Amino acid sequence: MRLRTPILAFGLFTAAASLGHAQSTLPPLSFLGFEAGARLDAVSLQVQALGGTGLRCDRSRRDRTVSECRATLFDPVWSRPVTLWLSAMDSATGILMLSGPVTGEQLDGWKTELESAFGGVGARVEGPQWMLQWVRQGRMMRLTWRVDNNAKVASVSLVDGWILDDWGRHRDERPITVDPRTGRDSLRAKAVKPAAPAAPTPVIETPSPR
Known about the structure:
- By secondary structure, the protein is of the alpha+beta class.
- Helices cover 20% and strands 32% of the residues.
- The chain has a domain at 30-170.
- The strands form 2 sheets. The chain has an 8-stranded antiparallel β-sheet with strand order 3-4-5-6-10-9-8-7.
């Protein structure tokens, strides 16, 4: 069973930063100790604190400032494995997703923890998929889950709109260069709006014992 992650668009989250000074006094959106916008070294330390072995990162071939990293850690309450995936720009996390198969009690625990920390929000339904979403200070957090044949999979996505917008703006502002051999603009320099890195689709797997 697969859980679809909606495509993230530039500018969607930075608009929420204009809601006023009241939001700036609220705690930053976070889950299991991870925050959107965190540096890779801080994320790696938190992975290790939760029983993981650190991040495994690869740089994008198209943009060397972008890294995709993965890790496996353990829910500190339920001792169940959780998969971490992130996309970082210049070592700052733009998108981070924590996902995995969950029990009903674990899912209820995640919802209770998030609503207690960040306030109750109405659940949205898209087909068989449910989600709760919080937007604050240009950042977004979304808990998504799906149930099929009594099997549950859930994910928490943390997105920093400031980092994504800054990355896209710098990509657009790069000067156009001309290949002296052909007289044509280089493909990398064309001012085309880049798409945000797409998060992988969580897939239910049979968890191995810790």
